[in-house]
Design brief:
This protein is of the alpha+beta class. The chain contains three helices and five strands. It has a five-stranded antiparallel beta sheet with strand order 1-2-3-4-5. The structure holds cobalt (II) ion. Cobalt (II) ion binds next to α2.
């Protein structure tokens, strides 16, 4: 296991396309564990492999990431996740480990059905609502090179991206 580096906006790697996982081996299990560890260390509830520079369709989610007691955590690994159905709309505040110093209100589907594979390659299906639904939509966007700030109204989006780009330059 290793702690991975998280790339942040406007790093071009976050805009890349990612490849489906076809080999379900020990390396995949280790990568998923490293992603979970990295996410816990950064106090996030979701992380996509692309955020750590790995261009594969892997995401990890744990809505109980903030639990001090490790036994109360609920780690999930989704390989090749795909939204097959969406229901309703909901608006909530989102943030992202790759978008530092900005949170914003984003509209998403309220409920989704996701098909994916577990770390051994077994096909799975999940009906997700509330936080899990929002988190999965956010992370699956990452796999397609999309960030949550891309969903902001255009003017606001331009303003936020300009400010974040300036901030990133200042930190170089
Ligand atoms: Co994110």
């Amino acid at each position: 296991m290793a702690i991975l580096e998280i790339y942040t906006f406007p790093d071009p790697i976050l805009r890349k396309q990612t490849k489906a996982v076809t080999v379900f081996d020990h390396e995949l299990a280790v990568t998923s564990q490293s992603m979970l560890e990295t996410m816990y260390l950064s106090s996030g509830i979701g992380l996509a492999a692309i955020q750590t520079g790995i261009l594969k369709r892997i995401i990890v989610v744990d809505l109980k990431s903030g639990e001090e007691d490790v036994n109360l955590r609920e780690p999930h690994v989704f390989i090749n996740p795909k939204i097959v159905k969406k229901f309703g709309t909901t608006v909530s505040e989102e943030g992202c480990l790759s978008v530092i110093e900005f949170r914003g209100e984003i509209e998403r589907a309220e409920k989704i059905i996701v098909e994916y594979q577990d770390v051994t390659g077994q096909p799975k299906k999940m009906e997700a609502e509330e936080m899990m639904s929002i988190c999965l939509q956010h992370e699956i966007d990452h796999l397609n090179g999309v960030l949550f700030i891309d969903h902001l109204p255009l003017l606001k989006q331009k303003m936020v991206k300009k400010r974040l780009t300036k901030l990133a330059k200042a930190e170089e």
